[in-house]
From TrEMBL:
This is Winged helix-turn-helix domain-containing protein. InterPro entries: Homeodomain-like_sf, Winged_HTH_dom. It comes from the Bacteria. The lineage of its organism: Bacteria, Bacillati, Actinomycetota, Actinomycetes, Kitasatosporales. Residues 98-157 form the Winged helix-turn helix domain. It comes from Streptomyces cupreus. Pfam families: HTH_23, HTH_33.
């Protein structure tokens, strides 16, 4: 089993990996050797040998997930709920009236004003993705754009040019 390119695992992925390790422990208890377990579970031999050594020393507890790696985020669940509501209100409700777009810089200022904590832009972007928000680039169109003329051009002019 390979780790994703981006690094960390979700809770579901960690649970799946733990189930695989527990399967390996059952196979070790049944008398199978690490190379046989590796083949059966489609994992590396190195992992199977490491699991076997841990299982021999400490049993199933050695194969339990140790939880997410890294430092826990300072962004608390209650803060996330507040931030989601604030983003739904729009930038104008928080003092940005020149345009109605949320940027990472603006969201960072919003969070800093409310919670007195600064997050880097990449970290804030990750938090927003975890919350279900996605990057959206606004479509820039001329104010003078006439949709009827555009449709007519596509049907008539573009159709002639495309035939050539």
């Amino acid at each position: 089993m390979r780790y994703p390119d981006e690094g960390g695992l979700t809770g579901v992925q960690r649970a799946q990996r733990e189930r695989v390790r527990f399967q390996a422990a059952e196979m070790f208890a049944a008398g199978l050797k690490p190379p046989q377990v590796a083949r059966a579970l489609r994992v590396s031999r190195k992992s199977a040998y490491a699991w076997h050594a841990g299982w021999r020393e400490a049993g199933m507890d050695a194969l339990r997930s140790k939880g997410p790696s890294g430092v826990a985020s300072r962004m608390q669940p209650s803060w996330r709920a507040w931030l989601a509501g604030a983003l739904d209100e729009g930038p104008a409700a928080h003092g940005w009236v020149e345009d109605q777009r949320w940027t990472l810089a603006r969201i960072s200022v919003l969070v800093a004003r409310r919670f007195h904590v600064r997050f880097s832009r990449p970290q804030l972007s990750r938090i927003l993705r975890e919350m279900g928000f996605s990057v959206q680039v606004p479509v820039h169109r001329a104010a003078e754009r006439d949709e009827k003329q555009v449709a007519r051009w596509r049907e008539e002019t573009w159709a002639r040019v495309e035939r050539r």
